[in-house]
Design brief:
Layout lengths: L16 H4 L5 H13 L3 H16 L5 H5 L2 H5 L5 H12 L3 E7 L7 H19 L4 E6 L7 H8 L6 H24 L2 E4 L4 H18 L6 E6 L5 H14 L4 E6 L4 H11 L9 H17 L4 E6 L3 H13 L9 E6 L4 H9 L4 E7 L6 H10 L6 H15 L4
């Protein structure tokens, strides 16, 4: 008879800045403080990305400035090899890495092929690295957005589009089959609602095909959509009925304003929750559903929300799930919410940081989103600043 796993009571605090920032040198902490203060200047967040693009077009020496500031805060490097130092530093404190090739906006087949090859490189790297917990990719990184729109609407395809679809699906399956072959967990990111149905279908079929022994392929659910709790229930029932394991990354979401604007313009009901409280409720509901089905479900809780992180830890305790159970991971973005990541890891939980990488110019869209996300002083940047200032004061650097 197998012994029961040791389940420790909750004994950590997200306010412990000594643990939260122990990875950062004094200079790195000061640099982070400067950067998060800059996020408070709305004009800079609004105009900065456009100015950066103009600077690149005019071949001005902007790359080194970006690389030593916002890129250094939120990205691991320009290549997988450059990410190694970041991964090794994180692993000193038992925080895993999720390598994320963050190049976006491609339209041609050669770039799609190159991106698929790069994603497979992350899988191969994860297979031989104990400090890499998952690989991850966006479907629009390997296939044309307009094609996915057409597939989502179930429109007829031209002969050229049929061939394009076959190439796209071959890339998708090659990535999934490599993850299965190497035993590497693979997160498929969620995207806009008007292409998400086709992504959901592809991921569910891949889970059914490759998740026979354990969860390898993971779908991503954006809980700011009001329909995701019911989707989750149906999807788990499908996994049980078809005898495979389900994997989910749970996030709040990344396309809210775009979604609402499109719904208004096209005259259909918004797919987005009416308010943040509704999103928070559904996020926590989904955590509970997954934990209640832990014999069939693995989860990666991608959240910068302290209450949801604490709630998941409490759910694990209530269901006698050990903090280091491989079926449950907490995840945050590199450069953000270190107070959650490192305090959870210090308490013995599985934690993985998203470590984006790619050429500086190519990851500008990603960096723009991070800047915008942190631009509200009352929100993320305010919390980050408060904690950084607390640690600066503790180190007598304030």
């Amino acid at each position: 008879m197998n012994p029961q796993p040791e389940v420790k009571p909750l004994n950590f605090s997200f306010d412990d800045t000594t643990i939260a920032f122990r990875l950062k040198s004094d200079n790195e902490l000061k640099k982070a403080h400067f950067l998060f203060r800059m996020f408070g200047y709305k004009w800079l967040i609004t105009s900065g990305p456009a100015l950066a693009r103009v600077a690149f077009t005019l071949h001005l020496p902007i790359k080194s400035i970006i690389k030593n500031t916002i890129f250094a805060q939120f990205c691991g490097g320009e290549t997988i090899e450059e990410c190694t130092a970041t991964s090794e530093q994180l692993w000193k404190y038992k925080v895993s890495t999720i390598l994320d090739y963050s190049v976006e906006g491609a339209q041609d087949e050669a770039v799609f092929d190159a991106t698929a090859a790069e994603i497979i490189k992350t899988i191969n790297k994860a297979a031989v690295s104990e400090n890499i917990a998952y690989s991850v990719f966006k479907v629009t990184g390997i296939g044309r957005f307009a094609l996915l729109e057409k597939l989502n609407l179930k429109k007829s395809l031209t002969p050229d589009e049929v061939a394009e679809r076959q190439r796209f699906e071959a890339r998708f399956d090659k990535i999934c089959s490599t993850a299965h072959e190497k035993g590497v967990r693979l997160l498929v990111d969620a995207e806009e609602t008007w292409i998400q149905d086709v992504i959901d279908t592809m991921v569910t079929l891949a889970m059914e095909k490759y998740n026979k022994q354990r969860a390898i392929i993971f779908n991503t659910l954006q809980m700011y959509r009001h329909d995701r709790v019911e989707f989750l229930k149906r999807d788990i029932a499908h996994a049980i009925g078809h005898n495979y394991y389900a994997g989910y990354k749970l996030v709040r979401g990344a396309y809210m304003e775009k979604e609402r604007k499109r719904a208004r313009e096209k005259g259909y009901p918004s797919p987005i929750q009416p308010d943040k409280a509704s999103t928070d409720i559904d996020y926590n509901k989904s955590l509970k559903i997954c934990i209640e089905h832990i014999d069939r479900v693995s989860i990666c809780a991608g959240t910068h929300n302290e209450e949801s992180s604490w709630y998941l830890a409490q759910l694990m305790f209530d269901h006698a799930i050990a903090p280091n159970d491989e079926r449950v991971y907490f995840s945050q973005l590199l450069g953000m919410s270190d107070h959650i990541s490192f305090n959870l890891s210090d308490a013995g939980y599985n934690v993985a940081k998203y470590v984006p990488y790619g050429p500086v110019k190519a990851v500008l869209p990603y960096l723009t989103r991070r800047a915008q996300e942190n631009s509200s002083v009352a929100g993320q940047a305010g919390r980050e600043l408060t904690l950084i200032e607390k640690e600066l004061e503790r180190r007598k650097l304030g």
